[in-house]
Amino acid sequence: MIQKTKSISIRIEGVLVPTREGKTILEAAREAGRNIPTLCHMDGLQDVGACRLCIVEVGGSGRLAPACTTPVQEGLSVTINSPRLAAYRRMIVELLLAERNHVCAVCVSNGHCELQSMATSLGVSSVRFPYRYPALPVDLSQQRYVIDHNRCILCSRCVRVCTEVEGAHVWDIMGRGIHSRVISEMDQPWAEASTCTGCGKCVQACPTGAMAEKGKAVEEMVKRTDAVASAAARKGSRI
Amino acid sequence: MSKVKLATIWLDGCSGCHMSLLDLDEGILAVAQKADLVYSPLVDATEFPEGVDVTLVEGAVSSQEDVARLRTVRARSRIVVALGDCATSGNVPAMRNVVPVQRLLERIYIKGADVSPVIPSAGVPALLPQARPLREFVKIDVHLPGCPPPPKAILAVLAELLEGRVPKPLEVKFG
Predict the structure, then answer these.
(1) Which domains does chain B have, with CATH numbers?
(2) Residue A239 counted as domain residue
(3) Average pLDDT, chain B
(4) CB atoms within 10 A of CB A208
(5) Which of B91, B98, B135 faces A135 most closely, judged by CB atoms?
(6) Is some CB atom of chain A closer than 8 A to the CB atom of B173?
(7) How far apart are CA A208 and CA A212, in angstroms?
(8) A69 with A130, same domain?
(9) Is B103 on the interface with A (CB under 8 A)?
(10) What ipTM, to 2 d.p.?
């Protein structure tokens, strides 16, 4: 069912941008050809505001809000680039890098990683916070795929693509805060997850090398995020 | 005009960053015209000299000796450059960080040894509990990531530093 929504307009960096009620700031901005950096967003999946990279300043007070989960309102004024936002975005990427063991040099996704390219584009050349170097597991039980928690940024794209597109809901996130971890079913080895269809959408949706196809060497894992996004865009369109 | 005093030092790394430095091709001639290499694994000097203008540091800080050498470098250099991922983030040397040092040494020198299983102690510096990036020990003026940093990026940074300017952050990826 196509619902008609009201045409409204918002201001992005002072410029009037036409959009419709029910859209998010991120959608309105991208449709107007303006980019806002994101990591946890994936076209076609529900947005959850996990990574916080898309923060923008809204209203006259410059209140911070995630563009991916904040709906547009008539007359809303949005700033998507400012020195303050750039500083926060760099800080977010640095915290992500310090949180787990992102050793790009030995990673299957080196050169094709969204976290790595985000760091480069935001000018992150070192991390000001002490690295945690946590001891985290790698699950090699699945026949064709591997999940390496050292490289996970908890974006939850795997959780959402599995639930919303494949309809299996193998993945979820366990624990809170720094102890959060992606788990299959009730925190058992991936191979024992009876709901897993082995479709690999989680692997292709993963922005880093945390999920990968087995047999890939350093730099060889190129994700087919476009294929997953187009599958996500078609969801519900066929009965 | 007197030449810039350039030094390089190799802590816990694989020397790949130094290889990348040598890989500047003809760019190395321009560097040599402007700088004297006063201390480096590539020259004979045995002691790190005073009054160095620019020092490139490869590798993470992994042992007590690394800490001492890095502090000397900092005290005697005007500009210190963290060269490569080990220096900027720990990188591969830091992959040992989840294993306690004693267990690590036993695994390698006792269980992993075919002959004479013994943990070396004489003449080798004690390992720190973890290998960590340079900036956790001393102030770093320029970070140049990469494993190794591309020769072009090293040349771009050196060109600025040898003219007495501090380079702007380059778009160089980790890894």
Answers:
(1) 4-162 (3.40.50.700)
(2) no
(3) 96
(4) 27
(5) B98
(6) yes
(7) 9
(8) no
(9) no
(10) 0.94
